[in-house]
Amino acid sequence: MRLREPTTIWRDAHDRVTAYLRASRVHDPELCERLGDQIVAAARQRYETESNRTPGDLVAEETRRLVEAWTTRYLGPATDESIAQRFAHARAAVLLANLTERWPDGFLNPAEQPPEFGRRFKSTYLQSGPDLEFSNMSPRPIDLGPMSGLADRTWKTFDKWPMLRGLATWSAFAAALVLAFLALRY
Amino acid sequence: MAPPDFNPEEVTPRQLTWSRVRVLSFVVVTTGVAGLLMADLLWGMPLAGWAVVVWCLFVVLFALIAFGFAQAWFGYRVRRRGDDQTIDQTLPVDEESVPMASTAIVMPIYNEDVRRVYAGLRATFESVQRTGQGGWFDFFILSDSTDPNRWVEEEMQWVELSRELNARGRLFYRRRRVHVNKKAGNIADFCRRWGRRYRYFVVLDADSVMSGDTLVRLVRMMEVNPKAGLIQTAPQLVRGETLFARVLQFAARLYGPIFREGLNYWQQGEGNYWGHNAIIRTAPFMAHCALPGLPGREPLGGRILSHDFVEAALLRKAGWAVWLWPGATGTYEEGPANVIDYAKRDRRWCQGNLQHFWILIARKLHGVSRVHLTLGIMAYSSSLLWLLSLVLGTLLAIGFNFTGLSWLPMPGLAGAVGVGHKLQMGLLAGFTMVLLFGPKVLAVLDQLRQPEGAKPYGGKRALVKSVLMETLFSVLLAPVLMLFHSHFVVAIMMGRGVQWVTQRRGGDEDATTDWSEARSVLAGHTCTGLIWLGLLIWLAPTLMWWMAPLLIGLIGSIPFAVCSGRIGWGQAAFRRGWFLIPEETNPPSELRDLKRLIAHEHPAIPQVGAGADEGFVCVLLDPYVNAVHRCLLRERKSRAPLFHGYFARLRERVLTEGPQSLSAREKAALLADATSVDELHLAVWLRQPAGMAACWRQWLGAWSPA
Predict the structure, then answer these.
(1) Complex confidence, ipTM
(2) Which of B240, B307, B511, B587 is an S-S bond match for B249, by CB 3.0 to 4.6 Å?
(3) Does residue B166 fall inside a structural domain?
């Protein structure tokens, strides 16, 4: 894919990525601009060798990498998480720890933050449930007696032969009529 | 530790049997006398071929009424004497000395009103914290929601609530990816994942609220009764806004105590489970209550719908006691808001209870468990029997008019003691009325005997007025329900099952019934009533007056459903002091909190004007909603190339054509796919606008952080 107006395209990408950073509560406009420049520059550089990718895709990847790099400063390198998971967990932790309210310029800021910032970020991890302790709870058959086996077989036969089912239904109806007739007579 | 007032271990089988024999004797004697009088009348008539059928129906139905009265009577007596043997009396006087144990409070939900669910859970959570025993309880929201918007809202409300209550590590959210076996499967899934961590768990319904004191006492009752497998509380209906819901909650509140006490009188540790607001011992529940399928297929076979009765029976079979705590306070739920929602709920319950025919014949069940199952089946089947009995009565009357035969040509039993036939019939009718309406009188007397008297119900005058109006209301409602239930029983027997739907409750703002809905659902009732009336006017006019309550109920069912389902009518009744309940005249703190929370809750997700797709759009748009949702998804380790292609196509459609181009199922599939949630989020923000549907630009413009 070749771009006809590369400068305009990358300028637009820059606008979009800074809008996204603002939406992610990076409140300092200067920091937003700087991070936007950094992301777009990295994406542009990659585009030279990966021209089959769209600028949007490359910018998205670089944004993830930026957040991942920032997160690694506080949490250390990811061991069992993908970059995408890290990206989500970092944002969720920022929200849960109220970091952007207490330190409006802290999120994604390469400058050193107070130790409390790091502690709160580290301790806040979205936990949807306590540690799993798997146990077995498998259904045990209830002994329903011989009737159930007979009924089950009848059901299956009816399913197999719908005509038989219709015949049985109408026979029951006819029997009810006969009973009503007999009750009227005697 | 001071000794308790009651120790279930000291109740001998002989004592237990004796209380059951008393109840049974009452039923047998009253039914016997009534059956004899009825037989005497029927066999004195010509056309006696029908008599056997009519008599059999009469005896079965009369026995059910007599059983209801017996329960109320023994309950009244026990409360009056104060010699009740209830599970709460097993607690020692210094109950604080009883140790606590780890307990999970689980709330299974399915596409419910999220605001209401979390307000109820919060009220319960805060109440538990006030007891100072909060450390023993963990709370779980177990979602089976399929609606993408509800799902997203549930997640964000959970995050919000955890933050506000500082409840991280105490309040958990889990949504099942595959909703196997509905509510029973949801609970079983919880047990498999975390059951071993908790000695007990308390099941709440989506509209349940429980006080902390009640929960702490339940745990302590389990601790002092090591053989108790389950303790059921009787949740009080509250927050009814419509007239229907208010009448329902008034009746349940006033008449409930004597019935529950009577129930406890004969069942003791062989009680039943009603599905929620109950504490369960986790280990035996996991060992014995995983439910297998039933023979055949739905609606009568297949997956067990009304799992609660069966679970109680299985626990009992395994030797664990199942108790009812009849006097429990601080346990609440909401009822249906109108006749139609009531009927919808009954249809589900009806199908579930009819399935119990299978369990009824299961081997080695306790006899009392079989009684519970039978009563459950009869709760709906009896309507069909009533209908049959009324139809046969009408046919008999028409038959007499046609043939010109006199009603009672032969002298009867009553004649021998100098009582005429008319008096005999009157006695029988009067006897039935006493058994039908007697419990209401007993309940009023019981209430007047309480230290607070009628004050919680607005005073004596208001109480009596409310009871009279409730009686009229129930007379009009009974034939409507009779026809509904009969229809359900027949439909289910014919193989037509029900879908799992979200219930609208008494406090819902959109729970009123409009005319078109009432017409479409109740047209059959009205037509039946009109045809019945026409036949009686034409062929048996004398019977018409006897049948008037039934006919008025059926013919007027549409206006009745609409008017009783209106919030305005409910509020008018409240202003006049009708159908007041103690929870309204002196609301407990949990219900006050609930009301405040519902009034002040704000949306947990930012609103961008996406209408029906608000939740779905927010997951893709809002960086934090997206982050929370993504954190809760499990990443698939590997996936077949077929799925890659499927999700890639869906993603492309969302971006280029907008979410409205996808079905609800496709949206839910996308939201459950971690890769799609990641990629779509960044694509919405970073992709060139030219390749995107116009709606995304519009929503990006409207978006601002919550």
Answers:
(1) 0.82
(2) B240
(3) no
